[in-house]
């Protein structure tokens, strides 16, 4: 584990990281009102009297959001609390209409849990979860619309968030990345959050401190509101380095809340501990304590199908995939669903699942990325990709030809067999035809043959290439190789 | 022309001896004549005549058809502005109607105006209103008296015969105390019986809507229409509302009446003690059994109330920040300054005092010592009542420690003012129903009130006891 240590000028340092992830609950309506949660609508078009905190308006719990939080808690292997309380967190801001945020403080809906992260080297690690609580999101203050005014958009005001708090079990930026990815994938499997970090559906606050291995925890700083894994990693790298430099020069870390500047990659103080708000939490008298029976919890539990770890285990057990490959594949539910559909499209593919994985993660991904298309709307269907892999396995086409066919499949949405037939791309397996081609190539390159025979073994590749060119890429590489070697040895 | 009750006015209407418009004319005239009492924050003849046209189309079956009702200006109303008696909501026009007032509208009631109150219902004399004091209609010319508060405008409106009923809200006594000081009937039902939806909040765990009227029967008619489950208020009770007026009776035989010794406090006038004694004797004569009881935590009720209510208020009033609606101070250079100026200029002294107290008791380091402790004491006070009600049917006490007092008497001493609620606050903390009815008077002829407290959801019991006592003055 000590490979996570950071070398300073004088000492080696360990980074201690805890994350607070804010995940927007996937729900048609808000936590305490029935307005829509759709993203990107006209400003202030999704604001109810409750969201705008008009006099006399009262919150009413959206039961669906509660169920989503419970499902998430189950997915985090966590304790679901039968009793939880909504509190008011009091502070003033222009995009906080009530003057308080309804959140959960002392009694959260979900208690202790854990998730597992998987490393490339095959190792795994558990990250403990402290709690998950429900709270309202604030609106948005828009400072760039007018030189002298701030505009407020309340569409987001009152949208349900789940705050997932980890123990400080994370020891590096890489682990933080794996952890967020894992949480994101659990949420997406459960369909309790859309996981869209660009739209802000998933954001994180990072608590970070450094210490010499074996020492007590150092003073921590909190970096607020990071909305991409890339920025989270950058921020951790920068902040750990900053703290180490201060400590090695004999300074002390001030417990500050920081903001990360994405353009220069640096953190800067937002407020100090002295300036910290006193939020005056107290139970919201407009809402009764939330009670959930064990029966309800069990019912929700039984509604959950396969979680990423279950699926990962299935891939390892049934398809012989490595732990890491399986975890990469399962981390994105859509990718994993696609893989399952490919495998299920033909019995024979189960034996060759590793090849299927490669075709998805390298060839298919590169085409989709190039066109910026998500896999769930891929024009190449899992069934057709399965067919293509099967054609390769049966030596009907070579892997090289298959790559061209895949591009055609993307452009035309056609069955790979149709494309191969129409373009006459079937592999050449007829030995005499290949022999003729090889003969011609050797005849045309007498000098090279001599050089080969005098010991320049590397020229074999040249002959393969020339022969392949002549066959228009259709020659079966294995047969071609054999014939070439055979013919050349006879010339000796 | 004076109408004594809802039923009297309705039979005149049914017999076509009076028209809806004539009812409107009558009350508009009365209200104009009593303009000097400053009972209404909002009064507009046109708005009344607008309603007349609608009400005329209502069937005569509608229980409150054409009944003139005054609405405490804490209830949001669609066709009249709502101010909570605060500068911060001056010119605020809700786009929605509170649950309670909507019920009344649906039953054909005619709203004559919005009545004055203590700012955000914080006060006991209707003297913290941004729109000035209301004067108790029972005052003599040279000594203006306070109507009590916070629903002083509503109590005064009924006392001055400017309506047949008025809505109020009661957080620590804001219906019962002004009812006592103005000589009218006022009931605060069980917490949760009337939806709080659309009522500007003061202290959410205590606020409860109720009603004022000239007699017990009218209060029972009005309450059965106003009460009911509302899914938009999570603290609203999903209970069946009895037909209070139909079930009303004076049979007190065998009823056990609790008389708590803790309510015999020092400094209460002999007159009040005498009236209390008279009421006990009267019920005894009607067949009730008197039982001395003890509510041992009563003395902690006021301090407990003055922690919990301001704590909730400090948070409830945070929404009045000048950003979205209501008053905003000019000329601020930053968001923080805008908040400071808006709230400094927009709120009155008493509201600011309570926001400060509430902010203090909730702040880090003090929360456990004040708020948590107060919650524990509140539980003890509630338990006192639960225990007591296992041995009596209802409790009889004075409503207020004094009759109506001169307007400026307690103005500069908040503690003295808070003592007005000494008899009403315990029931608020326990969430139980309480009614105040006029019973006797002091030497100057000012009315005194008797309070009857009942078990949760047992409004019928206290209506009946009040109804029985009311007969003594017919």
Give the helix/strand class of chain A. Answer: alpha+beta
Counting structural domains of chain A, the number is: 3
How far the N terminus sits from the C terminus of chain B, by CA atoms, comes to: 20 Å
CATH topology of chain B: Amidase signature (AS) enzymes
Rg for CA atoms of chain B: 21 Å
Query: How many DSSP E strands of chain B?
Result: 11
- Write down the overall mean pLDDT of chain A: 93
Q: Biggest protein-protein interface?
A: A-B, 30 and 44 residues
Secondary-structure element order of chain B, N to C: HHEHEHEHEHEEHHEHEHHHHEHHEEH
- Report the top-level CATH class of chain B: Alpha Beta
Largest sheet of chain B: 11 strands, mixed
Q: Output the number of helix runs of chain B.
A: 16
How many structural domains can be distinguished in the coordinates of chain B? 1
What is the number of strand segments of chain A?
16
Explain this structure to me?
- The complex is a heterodimer of chains A (492) and B (474).
- Chain A is elongated, with a radius of gyration of 29 Å.
- Chain A contains 15 helices and 16 strands.
- In chain A, strands 1, 2, 6, 7, 10, 11, 12, 13 and 14 form a 9-stranded mixed beta sheet that branches. Chain A has a 3-stranded antiparallel beta sheet with strand order 5-4-15, with no helix packed on it.
- Chain A has helices spanning 63-75, 173-190, 229-248, 294-303, 308-319, 323-331, 333-345, 353-371, 382-393, 399-412, 416-423, 431-444, 446-453, 459-470, 477-491; strands at residues 6-7, 12-24, 83-84, 87-90, 100-103, 113-118, 124-136, 140-142, 151-153, 160-166, 202-211, 221-226, 256-261, 266-272, 282-283, 290-291.
- Chain A has 3 domains: 2-300, no CATH class; 332-423; 431-491, Arc Repressor Mutant, subunit A (Orthogonal Bundle).
- Chain B has one domain: Amidase signature (AS) domain (Amidase signature (AS) enzymes, Alpha-Beta Complex), CATH 3.90.1300.
- In chain B, helix 9 links the parallel strand 7 and strand 8.
- Chain B has an 11-stranded mixed beta sheet, sandwiched between helices.
- Helices cover 37% and strands 13% of the residues of chain B.
- Chain B has helices spanning 6-14, 20-33, 45-56, 99-106, 152-159, 176-182, 216-226, 244-247, 270-285, 301-316, 335-346, 349-362, 367-388, 414-418, 425-430, 459-470; strands at residues 40-42, 68-72, 110-115, 165-170, 185-188, 208-213, 256-260, 289-293, 394-398, 434-441, 447-454.
- Chain B is of the alpha/beta class.
- Chain B is globular and about 70 Å long.
- The chains are: A alpha+beta (492), B alpha/beta (474).
